[in-house]
């Protein structure tokens, strides 16, 4: 995760990256990809494509990119990409005002 953080230029910012090598967090959040398509290809224990906005330990927003035709969200990841997450955070903040 450290190398990826450096590559993405987020060291020293408010962004935190965490690994989940055993999938504990992924499973507890209900984000384990268990669809038979990827599973049958040997992708066991893979996480769904998701983004989560957490503030002081409270989950403020969750987005998942998946559909019946695209269970891994690889073809249409837009809901979990930075622009969508930023927009959701802005909308959430404006509702709190």
Amount of helix: 25-40%
Q: Cα-atom Rg, whole angstroms?
A: 15 Å
The secondary-structure element order is HHHEEH
Biggest pleated-sheet summary: 2 strands, antiparallel
Instruction: Catalogue the unreliable spans.
Output: none
Query: What is the rounded distance between the termini?
Result: 35 Å
Globally, the shape reads: globular
Please tell me about this protein's structure.
- The protein has 97 residues and is an alpha+beta fold.
- 33% of the residues lie in helices and 15% in strands.
- The chain has four helices and two strands; from the N terminus they run H-H-H-E-E-H.
- Strands 1-2 form a two-stranded antiparallel sheet.
- The protein starts with a helix and ends with a helix.
- The model has no long low-confidence stretch (mean pLDDT 87).
Q: Helices and strands in order, then pairings?
A:
Elements (H helix, E strand, L loop, with lengths): L1 H7 L15 H5 L7 H5 L8 E7 L2 E8 L16 H15 L1
Features:
97 residues, alpha+beta
Quick overview of this protein structure:
This protein is α+β, with helices and mostly antiparallel strands. It has helices at 2-8, 24-28, 36-40, 82-96; strands at residues 49-55, 58-65. Strands 1-2 form a two-stranded antiparallel sheet.
